[in-house]
Write a structure and sequence with these properties.
51% of the residues lie in helices and 2% in strands. It is mainly alpha-helical. A two-stranded antiparallel ribbon has the order 1-2.
């Protein structure tokens, strides 16, 4: 869905729907895919460091998502996967070391002795999950229109189907 929206719909908004439609892209971790958390954390790191690079990074992630599916990362440590994700961020112009610095999990207890201290985007993940729960988002993709889940939109929607749906539902 992201690739279709990014290629076919986002360019139309300023031309056809200025002031009438706003698209908000919210990430949704899929907990049954453990590597999903790592990929979303990388996107949050990019968003924090270079917000203007979030969409190009997301585009790259979607194009290369199979590199981060469960079977593709199962033999890596978490920090090794983070390193690959930081290298991917570099490809879209974000500082690799800064991204990795936000993602890396320490191998020693925190100053308070904590063993589950997370990383530099853990609080961002908590907020993202909380917002999605409050809006009824549990799976991906989920589309909300005027604040309500819109179940008629499918993940397989083509650009033309999106255009037809928008013409029917967005007041001109």
């Amino acid at each position: 869905m992201f690739l279709t929206l990014n290629a076919s719909i986002l360019p139309l908004i300023p031309q056809q729907y200025a002031g009438k439609l706003q698209i908000v892209f919210r990430q949704q971790i899929q907990p049954w895919h453990p590597s999903s958390t790592l990929v979303h954390e990388a996107a949050l790191a990019v968003l924090r460091l270079s917000p203007e690079k979030f969409y190009p990074f997301s585009q790259t992630l979607f194009e290369r998502q199979k590199e981060f599916f469960d079977v593709s990362v199962v033999k890596e440590t978490r920090n090794e996967t983070y390193r690959r994700l930081a290298m991917l961020a570099k490809e879209v112009g974000v500082d690799e070391e800064k991204v990795y610095g936000l993602l890396e999990i320490a191998d020693k207890p925190g100053e308070d002795g904590g063993l589950n201290s997370g990383n530099g985007v853990t609080d961002d993940v908590k907020l993202m999950v909380k917002v999605n729960r409050l809006t009824g988002v549990h799976v991906t993709p989920t589309v909300l229109f005027n604040g309500a889940v819109e179940n008629s939109i499918s993940s397989s929607f083509t650009g033309d189907q999106w255009k037809e749906w928008l013409e029917r539902n967005v007041k001109q």
